[in-house]
Amino acid sequence: MPETTRLLLPLYLLACLLALLGLGALWYGLGKPVTLPDAASPTHKLQCASYTPFDKDQSPYDQPFRLRPARMDADLALLAERFQCIRTYSMTGLEAIPALARKRGLKVMLGAWVNANPADTDKEVKALIASANANPDVVSAVIVGNETLLRKEVTGERLAGLIEQVKGQVKVPVTYADVWEFWLQHPQIAPAVDFLTIHLLPYWEDDPRGIDDALAHVAEVRRVFGTRFAPKDIFIGETGWPSEGRQRETAIPSRANEARFIRGFVALAEANGWHYNLIEAFDQPWKRANEGAVGGYWGLYDANRQDKGVLEGPVSNLPLWPQWLLACVALLAALLLAVGRPATPLAALLLPLLVAFGAGCLGLWGELMRTHARFAGEWLWALVLAGLNVLVLMHVALGLVHREGWRKRLFAWLQARAGWWLLAAGFAAAVSMLAMVFDPRYRSFPTAALALPAVVYLLWPVAARRAEVALLAFIVGAGVLPQLYREGLENQQAWGWALVSVLMTAALWRSLRSRKA
After folding, report:
1. pLDDT of residue 56
2. Beta-ladder partners of 144
């Protein structure tokens, strides 16, 4: 038996072991629990949480819209275990909230939605006044408008007039809620309110703050406002951190970071005697349409009302990591069994490692799309790129094994169309790069979807249509530095996308040196 043949099995088994260890390290590293000091428990209730009554399949844009009283009652029963009060944002359809809150022993900060339509605003304000007067034992304060100045829907003078109107007709404190900068930009609002309600969301700041700096930033803004607007109280009306979504400069969404921020903030607020409201009670998938994927994941509980581990206990960034590990191992085993025996010792080493790399990329892409895909078009895009990865993975796997029968025919079919797979990957990379350069705010980085084609066709160049390849290589390559500039050099997700883009550009240019298609 030749020496090379005797080496095949040991090398193959070693590579399989390395592949399994690599997949295990990947998924456990993403999902391992993190232990932090607890913020709340049934015996240590927090102050207040934002509550919107939408189920995971609902949106305020649904018409006709029907709220579900049983859902609201169950929600408030759950929140009453951890909080003393809830904050609402609109009166429409929430007429039953005070009675349900009374039933569950909760106070309510009742909000009226103020917008550019005077008739809608007047209806909301009248309902707010009526509910506050009818439920003095439950309603602790009323909020006339939420981020209305930020949206530029009313003037400061109009808003101040509405606040004075409400103050003259209710007996509870009256406030307005907006991002902290807008209180400084509209000084006529502060004298009109009984206390200021400011929003402090370090992730969404124009200069985003990473998790290491976020609490210090919150504390500094709270200190400035407390001094500038004394003796009026400063109520932190929204603060929190997203558990999923794209990175913004140094601000990284994750469950662990959400828990770290919330638990740290609660400790800071209680040590300093601050009044606060956390955003938000439950994940709101409908917000992803307006704010990108990150908008749907600010909840302390997920959209199914399951505890995300934000307030107490160990927290995992990826609770589904065992399922993804199992899926990747199953794909690795199925593909290795399907393609058969490697052709050379080098192939024996490369085959399991490349298949594991492809399986990991598909798993990461699947997890990203599970949380980030918002529309049918995005799901279709995700499936197309997943299908492309499967084709590329099968192509390279068959290229490393002995081929007979159906394997030989399938490889010939894939090889004859390899230029199209490269062009498809290059097109996807070019479209993604243009989006990341010109309209990146609400988009996720497609790194995992294009890493495998980039690596495969860089190592094994294939011929493709030269003009199209050159154009795609130029678009992808030219976008690397601009997207890094937009995202900031400390954005690891941007660097990951930049690396894959460089590899894709190199793969496209290498194809130009192959024979003409």
Report:
1. 87
2. 112
Q: How far is CA 80 from CA 53, 308, 441, 447, in A?
A: 15, 17, 36, 41
Please state, in angstroms and rounded to a whole number, the distance separating the CA atoms of residues 355 and 400.
11
Q: Which amino acid is at 242?
A: P
* Helix, strand or coil, per DSSP, at residue 13: helix
Flag whether pLDDT at 453 surpasses 70. yes
Contact 347, 401 (CB under 8 A): yes
Residue whose C-alpha is closest to residue 151's, from 124, 119, 197, 113: 113
Residues whose CB is less than 8 angstroms from the CB of residue 49 and which lie 6 or more positions away in sequence, other chains included: 79, 82, 83, 85, 86, 87, 277, 278, 279, 280, 281, 300
For residue 155, CA distances in Å to 119, 148, 188, 312 come to 16, 9, 10, 42
| 361 pLDDT above the threshold of 70 | yes
If DSSP codes are grouped into helix, strand and coil, which group holds residue 238? Answer: strand
Q: State how far the Cα of 33 lies from the Cα of 256, in Å rounded to an integer.
A: 8
pLDDT of residue 4: 60
Q: Name the token pair of 195.
A: 């206390």
Q: What band does 517 get if pLDDT is binned at 50, 70 and 90? A: very low
pLDDT digits (tens, 9 = 90+) for 460-484: 999 999 999 999 999 999 999 999 9
Q: What are φ and ψ of residue 128, in 5° steps? A: -60, -50
CA dihedral in degrees (191, 192, 196, 201; nearest 10)?
-110
Measured CA to CA in angstroms, residue 482 lies from 185, 207, 230, 288, 490 at distances of 32, 18, 45, 26, 14
Tokens of 355: 């298949």
Closest by alpha carbon to 272, among 312, 233, 311, 228? 233
Within 8 A by CB and 6+ apart from 41, the residues are 82, 311, 312
Query: What span, in angstroms and rounded, lies between the C-alpha atoms of 56 and 228?
Result: 41
Q: What is the 3-state secondary structure (H, E, C) of 58-117?
A: CCCCCCCCCCCHHHHHHHHHHHCCCEEEEECCCCCCCCCHHHHHHHHCCEEEEEECCCCC
d(CA 368, CA 467): 33
Note whether 510 and 435 are within 8 A (CB): no
pLDDT in tens, 325-334: 999 999 999 9
The full length of the chain comes to 517
Backbone angles phi, psi at 170, to 5 degrees: -125, 165
* Number of Cβ atoms within 10 Å of the Cβ of 122: 14
State whether the Cα torsion 342-350-355-424 is positive or negative: negative
Instruction: Show Cβ contacts of residue 150 under 8 Å, excluding neighbours closer than 6 positions.
Output: 178, 179, 182
